Amino acid sequence: MCDDNTDMPTSRSAFFLAITLAAAALGLGGCASVDRAAQHTVAWVRDALQTQLDYPIDRVARASVEALRDMKFADVTAKTDVIYGVVTAKTARDEKVSVELTSISDGRTVVDIRIGVISDKAVATKILDHIKKNL
Q1: Model pTM score
Q2: Relative to the CA of 15, which of 26, 32, 107, 114 has its CA 20 to 30 Å away?
Q3: What ranges do the domains of the chain cover?
């Protein structure tokens, strides 16, 4: 009689171990892909356009001021420190434009853009595009 059945549990265990390791490797690669995708994600959160930029807060603040001035908004002002920043302006309709910045690391900044009481997605997107051009 053949004793091949005695190796069956070991072969089965090795097979499941190989599948588990392969799945884990694919899963880790997926996390890196998700992280890279999140870097360029733009979301609409609490009536604000929100994204993350791979630049330090001082550089994003300067680019925001330049963007709002390039777009001919009035009363452009900026207040920043090493953690937070706020760049404000007024539209021709006298609506407040607010670009709020939060440093989450030395080279990464969260950007929230609001226009007026109920933000305008199209205008917020144009502002973000101008900020990116100035980086």
Answers
A1: 0.69
A2: 32
A3: 4-36, 42-133
| H-state helical runs in 1-104 | 8-38, 57-70
Give the model confidence (pLDDT) of 94-117 as tens digits: 999 999 999 999 899 999 999 988
Instruction: Give 63-94 pLDDT, tens digit per residue.
Output: 999 999 999 999 999 999 999 999 999 999 99
* Residue located via tokens 């009536």: 47
Does domain 42-133 sit in CATH 3.30.310.80? yes
Contact 124, 49 (CB under 8 A): yes
* Token reading at 118: 């109920």
Closest CA to 44 of 124, 109, 99: 124
Q: Under 8 Å CB-to-CB from 65, ≥6 apart: which residues?
A: 76, 78, 87
Q: For residue 91, which of 78, 75, 77, 79 has the smallest C-alpha distance?
A: 75
